[in-house]
Write a structure and sequence with these properties.
heterodimer; A: alpha+beta; outer membrane lipoprotein receptor (LolB), chain A; 13-stranded antiparallel β-sheet; 5 helices; 13 strands; B: 2 domains; six-stranded mixed barrel; two-stranded antiparallel ribbon; 12 strands; elongated
């Protein structure tokens, strides 16, 4: 879910790109940095509020959670579990680079240490790092257009992102696939430092939520665990939420149970 | 030897220059002392590393599900999802007389938080009383007491306590992914702290009763990840592993019994490397001593050229001269061996039973998953001592061979005529 909030912002950014760029550039005009920068910039400063359902399927168990979520730019987000009842009220707050978890059962808040940023968020296949990732793609990665054309009946761009030498990032390579017609993301493939595929993210079910076209369903699949996945489906989503400012993303708000 | 005239001549000759004989013998004796003590000390260090590595926390054997290692997955409990009859398994695991103790363990990765500080660590569920009999890390707590089952109590390493900025009686929030997919979390009270000297353990292991950890991560009572087993001697672990495997066979589906030698192969390799160096030590020490003995024997035979010339002139064969010198060298070697044993034995007995502690000079050394207190602890190795004695005698004889041959080739007429 944490990553999905980032994905949602990214999606929003990509949607905004499609709204402001009426005619997709030709291959010769494609500037990967410009596109990724605009994507990055566009979902910074955006605010959102919505509800979503996360389904986690593992080898050992399946579970579904309903969550309410808020975000402000790339620095602030809050996710609160509404169901199942056993975990209702459990919440995660991201404020700047810090992540806090509120545990209603014991009525305590804990700060997630940096060493756990790669750890799973609530048993899902998303990591805490997916939530706090503040890196800008254009700053941390060298970006090349690696494909431009028809793939499975859809005209897409594929951008390959290789981390810069000094960048403190997790992945060894990222491949973004973007639909040219409306700048919708179709998929992201994450590779580790050894060049092995680590996980994939797929976007689908493009609908209008909050007045914008977004992929409603996002599916994260770990490469090393076939059959396991975490899906994130937005039930409703609104953008540019009024009165949602930084003060909302506080420990006090985190500890509200509903 | 006493029946041979050459032997009598050789041995008697040692007494002609008692100081020189003593000094030369001392060279060999010190070589004997250095070799035996150095190897004994090395073996003491290796044994200490093995002992600490296996008895401090891990145990000499581990029984766990075949899929448990290397990832140590939460779901890979002994007996699978159904678990096992723990009492029966423990009874069988301790049926071999060489087994000292066995105790169940449950592991889970998690977070331990106090105030604004949170530490990611390993939650280790143990049977506190059984663990004291099995391992050493909880034997003497630096503060507090062992946790009691059902009371939500735990102990942590001193370094973790420092990072959490907490003390005995402090409240800790413990969070861990549970087996049902939920996020297990509960409040615990810190009742004790331990210190192993290994930073990776003292900063990362929170220890609580196995029942409490099972409840936290939603594992049923019969589901444990490991039965740790301790043996009387770490070096019999592989043999005991076979015996324990037979004992528990049929009880536990797809369980395996793994000795420490498989869990920590680097330590085994280190022990082998150390053993392989012992021969090198002998070669270096006695190689140096050999030149000293050769020099002494060369001087001694040079001084006795007239004697050898007379012997040859009255009909002694050159081989007889060689033998007399070699017997002298052998007698020197035996004398040196006696000196060496007299020098070495008290020191070995002393350092074996009450080794000087050098920890104050260099502190504790952490290496290969073990913490080593630098003491002069030595181990007895009769085989190596015998090998060293043989090397000493061989050195004395071999070193004398060239002087002996030269002595047998003196020209009698020239020497006796004063040329």
């Amino acid at each position: 879910m944490t990553g999905c909030m980032g994905c949602a912002r990214q999606t929003v950014g990509l949607v905004a790109v499609s709204m402001t760029t009426l005619v997709p550039p030709s291959y010769a005009q494609v500037d990967p940095y410009e596109i990724m920068d605009r994507v990055d910039q566009l979902y910074r400063g955006e605010s959102s509020h919505g509800t979503s359902t996360m389904e986690v399927v593992t080898e050992n168990w399946d579970r579904q959670m309903t969550m309410e979520l808020w975000s402000l730019g790339n620095d602030f987000s809050l996710v609160r579990i509404q169901a199942p009842a056993r975990e209702a009220g459990t919440a995660t707050l991201k404020a700047d680079r810090d992540i806090y978890n509120y545990l209603p059962k014991v009525d305590r808040t804990i700060k997630i240490p940096a060493s756990m940023m790669g750890g799973s968020w609530m048993g899902s296949h998303f990591t805490n790092d997916d939530l706090v990732q503040e890196s800008r793609l254009v700053d941390d990665y060298n970006i090349d257009l690696s494909f431009d054309g028809d793939r499975d009946g859809t005209v897409v761009w594929e951008f390959t992102l290789i981390p810069k030498a000094e960048a403190a990032v997790v992945w060894g390579r990222i491949e973004y696939e973007v639909r040219q017609a409306d700048y919708m993301p179709l998929g992201v493939r994450y590779y580790d430092e050894d060049g092995e595929l680590a996980r994939t993210m797929e976007f689908s079910d493009f609908v209008t939520l909050g007045g914008r076209t977004v992929p409603r369903l996002m599916m994260m699949r770990p490469a090393d665990k076939p059959g396991e996945h975490t899906s994130m489906r937005y039930e409703d989503l609104e953008f540019d939420v009024e009165d949602l400012d930084e003060s909302f993303f506080s420990l006090r708000t985190l500890q509200r149970r509903r | 030897m006493s029946q041979s005239p050459w032997a009598r001549i050789g041995m008697r000759n040692l007494g002609r220059h008692p100081k020189r004989t003593l000094l030369t013998a001392m060279g060999l004796a010190v070589g004997f002392f250095a070799s035996v003590v150095l190897v004994g000390w090395s073996q003491g260090l290796v044994n200490q590393m093995v002992e600490n590595s296996t008895s401090l926390l891990g145990g000499q054997l581990e029984i766990h599900d075949a899929e448990f290692l290397p990832e140590r997955g939460l779901y890979d409990t002994i007996g699978g999802r159904d678990g096992v009859d723990l009492d029966q398994l423990l009874t069988r695991a301790t049926s071999d007389v060489r087994v000292v103790a066995a105790a169940p363990r449950v592991y889970a990765g998690g977070l331990v938080s106090s105030g604004n500080s949170t530490v990611a660590g390993m939650l280790m569920g143990v049977d506190p009383e059984g663990e004291v009999a099995l391992s050493r890390f909880l034997d003497v707590l630096t503060a507090g007491r062992l946790p009691r089952p059902g009371q939500n109590e735990l102990v942590v390493g001193t370094e973790m306590a420092r990072q959490l900025e907490t003390e005995i009686g402090g409240e800790l929030v413990v969070v861990a992914p549970a087996a049902d997919g939920s996020m297990g979390n509960d409040l615990f009270t810190l009742v004790g702290t331990y210190r192993t000297g290994l930073g990776e353990i003292d900063s990362a292991f929170a220890v609580l009763p196995v029942e409490d950890l099972q409840a936290l991560v939603v594992l049923s009572a019969g589901r444990v990840h490991e039965i740790a087993v301790s043996t009387q001697d770490p070096w019999v672990a592989e043999e005991v592993a076979v015996a324990v495997t037979t004992a528990v066979d049929g009880d536990v589906l797809e369980a395996e019994v793994v000795p420490w030698t498989e869990l920590n192969p680097a330590l085994v390799e280190y022990a082998r490397l150390a053993s392989s160096m012992y021969g090198v030590i002998l070669v270096i020490v006695f190689g140096l001593a050999m030149f000293g003995v050769a020099n002494t024997m060369l001087m001694a035979t040079y001084e006795r050229r007239r004697e050898f010339a007379v012997m040859l002139a009255v009909g002694t064969t050159p081989w007889g001269v060689v033998l007399s010198v070699l017997y002298e060298a052998l007698a020197l070697g035996l004398f040196a061996l006696v000196l060496g044993v007299v020098m070495t034995a008290p020191v070995m007995i002393w350092w074996h039973n009450a080794p000087p502690d050098l920890t104050g000079l260099v502190g504790e050394i952490e290496m290969m998953g073990s913490v080593v207190s630098l003491t002069m602890q030595v181990e007895y190795d009769v085989n190596f001592a015998v090998m060293t004695a043989a090397a000493l005698l061989a050195t004395a004889v071999v070193a004398a061979f060239y002087p002996a041959v030269r002595a047998s080739r003196v020209p009698p007429a020239d020497i006796l005529s004063g040329l």
